[in-house]
Amino acid sequence: MIKKTLYFGNPAYLSTRNEQLVVNIPEAQELDNKSGINTIPIEDIGIVITDHQQI
For position 55, what pLDDT does the model report? Predict the structure, then answer.
């Protein structure tokens, strides 16, 4: 299986729930009325790059 590379260059909140990475992006909530929350299965992640101080 191909692993994903996740890059975070903007402020975000990262947490885990039910063996999934939960990504909460506050800026996305301000731009539109969507939740701004995404989930990614942990087993699909190969590497996580955090390139911002507010993560």
Answer: 82
